[in-house]
Structure formats: C-alpha cells, structure tokens
Amino acid sequence: MKTLFQNAKILKLNTDNGYITGDVVVNGNIIEYVGKKAPNGSYDKVIDVNGNVLMPGFVNAHAHTAMTLLRGVKDDVPLQEWLMDGVVPMEEKMTDEDVYWGQMLGIAEYVRNGITTFEENYFNYEGFTKAINKSGLRARIGIGPKINDRNNNHYQYLENLLQIVKNNTDESLVNVVVYAHSIYTISEDQFYAMVKFANDKGYPFSIHLSETLKEVGDCTVEHKELTPPGYIESLGFLDRPCLCYHCVHMDKDDIQILADYGASVATCPSSNIKLASGIAPIYAMQNKGINICIGTDGVASNNCLDMFKEMFLVSTLSKVSLYDPSVITAKEVLEMATINGARALGVNSGEIEVGRNADIILIDLNSPHMQPSTNIISNLVYSARGSDVYFTMVGGKVVYDNGKYNIGEDIEKIYEKVNEIRKRISSND
Ligand SMILES: [Zn+2]
C-alpha cells in the first residue's frame, strides 16, 4: 500500500519556519519520501492535505489508559483519599473485559487527539493487550510486579506477564519495559528480581519517581537519607536505560544522578497540578541534558488524553515557576511531545523523515484560533487543541479520518460498554 500526501505544511522543527511545503510518501509502514514534489508513480491512495499541517503523531510517554473508566472519580479531594477511597476500590472490581473496553475508549481518545504511541502501565494484561493489538496502535508495555505483593515468585511473575504480552501483541508495534510502580509500593526483593530480569532479557526500566513531597520524605527516612533517585541508583535500577515519570520534587543532586545515567523523564503537568503535587523543574533538568518527554498519566488525574493541553502546561508552568518566559521555547516543547518521547520509548517514530515509521497526523488550520497560520510552531503549542486533528495514521494504517474511527471496535459500542461498566464498578454491592 502506497499513500501520497500532497500540498502539506510538513513539520520540520529544524528549519527557519518550522515546516517545509511539499509531499510525503508512505510505503507500507514506513515514510519513503519527504520533499517538495513526490516522484511520479502509481499510488494506491492520494490525500490532498490542502496546506494544512502534516506532523509526526504524539508520543504519550506515561499512561494508564484504561483509567478512562474512572474519569471524574473523586476529583477534588487529596491524593490519598482519591486513590484509596476512589480509584482502588473501583479498580478491584474490574475484569479483563472491563479493562479491554476502558483501553478501547482511551485508544479512541488517542487517535482523535493525534496520539500514535503510548507507554502503558496497567493491570488485567489479557484485557488491555488485546485492545492494543486490535487497534493497531504503537505501544511500549510495562511489565511489573503486583503492588504490595510480598509473597510471589517475582521473577516468574514477570515471565508470565511477558508471555501474555508476547502472545497477544505484534512485535512490530509493541515493545516491552520492566516497570516498577514506585519505591513505596515495590519491595527490595521485587526490585532485585526486576533488575535480574531486565539484565537477563535486555529490557529497559521505568518508574514513578519523586512525584510527591511525601514520597521523598518517606524515602529519606526509610532508606538511609537517600532520596528516590539515590535509592534506585543503589538498587542498580539506573544501570539500564530508565524512564522516570513525574520527577516533580528533585534537588540539584537528584537531577545530577539522572543526568549521569542518561535517564529520561516523562513530565505529566496536568496530573501534577490537579493532584496538587507540584511543578517539575523542567528547565533545570533540561539544562543538565536529561531527555524530557511528556505524558498524560491516567484519566482519573488529568482528566483527558490531549497532548496539546500538556504541551501548553509544560511550557507555561516552567515559565511561571521561574518568573521568566524565556526558559522554554515552543519548539523545545514540540520536540518533547514527539521525538524525545520516541527516543525514550525506543521507537523509530517522532519525526517526518525517510525511514521512520509512518506515524502521521494532519492538523486543520481552518479555524479562527489557528489563524494567521504564519507561525505554525507557536499555534501548535499555545493555540491548538486535540480536536484540530482530523487524520491519524499509525505504521501506515489509517486509524482516524474526519470523525471515522478505525480501531477494531465501533465507537458507539465503546461508549455503551464503558457506561455499563462504570455503573457496575461504582456501586457498593
Ligand atoms: Zn502514573
């Protein structure tokens, strides 16, 4: 299958305008041509982009996708109450099938908003892996120990999860990361099993890290004054490529540790401000050369899966926290949401370039808030929203086109199912 996109403003962040005008050719699942005028030839499909923006799909570097089922649960209460009285009791009632439908709803939201790749951390693996596979989206799946499980054969548990992922997904679209929920929910035995597992199999790591002040305080008390980055360093958890989610409460030494090991950070500003966790020190981390990418986190703390909102917040929170609008540029934020995320997740996407995966979205410029369309990069970061995306392609497959979803389930059926599930898991019976 060969597709020609014509007459597009192709996002190229390292050019003067931030874009070039021209054509893109997709052959199978790969970008084959990017330039002024595609070679003459026969194409299975020709799409006239009409001067709109063609750009790489967003990489959502931290998500618990099926938490869409919990949208709006315990919105305005402290984190501990939100988690223990709202989220956890409902999650305990979820079956594999529930998680399948929650995942499908999240995937619909992803393609609607131009997200083509995501990092997944959830449970009920049979449910969510089947949804990912059916939809055709690209994902990196975290396999990790059960939270607070102290009596397992931890290594074997990871092996079992890996088998589920391998059985249910396509390795051309899905890769694996060894995932620790956090230092306060994972025992030392579990950490050591994870390190051995990752070393044996050659997998990278990911973890929620330094998300709240309480996490940092408790860690220094329990682990000989080590802060969370120092503690995971002592466990050997930074000896392999590591993606750390949140990193809100980081001092100079913490930042230096992550920089020394070449770790990446996924910042999740909506979640951090909604749960009143704080503002991540993006400027300081970036200055130390840490690869910063962006995640939505789960819907229960966001409450929507829109990278445009996250980009706006990464930029503006960094500026206001230092009272300086020059500390971060729109171009840097776009890189975080695309190429930096792809780098952190180890996928060959995130740029419109020959040889990259054909993960492509089209953005409509024909709205008042996108005009004048002279400064595309600025419009994308400060003005655009998810609903400006009108076409989404993952690995050469069209998954969303002008209101039509192609993710393996009918959108109306997804809405019906998630409402039924939500009613059931909300009840106290
Ligand atoms: Zn999270």
In short:
The protein is of the alpha/beta class. Helices cover 38% and strands 22% of the residues.
Describe this structure in words.
With 429 residues, the chain is an alpha/beta fold. The protein has 2 domains: 2-56 and 351-405, Urease, subunit C, domain 1 (Roll), CATH 2.30.40; 58-345, Metal-dependent hydrolases (TIM Barrel, Alpha-Beta Barrel). The chain is 38% helix and 22% strand. The protein contains 14 helices and 17 strands. Strands 1, 2, 3, 4, 5, 14, 15, 16 and 17 form a 9-stranded mixed beta sheet that branches. Helix 2 (96-112) packs across helix 14 and helix 11 crosses helix 13. The longest helix has 17 residues, at 96-112. The termini are far apart. The relative contact order is 0.16. The mean pLDDT is 96. Zinc ion binds next to loops.
Offer a few descriptive terms:
429 residues; alpha/beta; Urease, subunit C, domain 1; TIM Barrel; 9-stranded mixed sheet; 8-stranded parallel sheet; 38% helix; globular; binds zinc ion
